[in-house]
Amino acid sequence: MSDTLIRSHPEVPYATPTLSSSREHLVRAAAHLWRVQDASGRVLGHLRILSDPLGIRYRAERLHLGTGGFRLVGDFWRADDAVAALRNG
């Protein structure tokens, strides 16, 4: 028996997605997660990056305070579409 330490590779954070609208901005919350805030600083929801065999997907989520978990709003191919779903939802 050996005492070999198994280490996982460190998680590499993605670059912050660029939004075409200046109505909202992103604040990093984790390696693949950003808070979506409007111009007044109010949090609209969260944007999460997901790996997909066809490319990067952007997931719009809202934090549910009662359970402490996230509620799915939708998965999108563009970060702007995910942010629009949070803005208009």
What would your notes on this structure say?
The protein is mostly beta strands and 89 residues long. It is 11% helix and 46% strand. It has one helix spanning 79-88, and strands at 24-30, 33-38, 43-52, 55-64, 69-76. Strands 1-2-3-4-5 form a five-stranded antiparallel β-sheet, covered by helices on one side. β1 and β2 form a beta hairpin. The mean pLDDT is 88.
Annotation keywords:
89 residues; mainly beta; five-stranded antiparallel sheet
Radius of gyration from the alpha-carbon trace, in angstroms: 16 Å
> Share of helix among residues?
10-25%
The main β sheet shows up as: 5 strands, antiparallel
Catalogue the unreliable spans: none
**Can you tell me the overall shape?**
globular
Order of helices and strands: EEEEEH
Number of helices: 1
Strand content: over 45%
Number of strands: 5
Query: Taking all residues together, what is the mean pLDDT?
Result: 88
| Secondary-structure content class | mainly beta
C-alpha termini separation: 56 Å
Strand order of the biggest β-sheet: 1-2-3-4-5
List the helices and strands and how they pair.
Layout: E1 24-30, E2 33-38, E3 43-52, E4 55-64, E5 69-76, H1 79-88
Antiparallel strand pairs: 1-2, 2-3, 3-4, 4-5
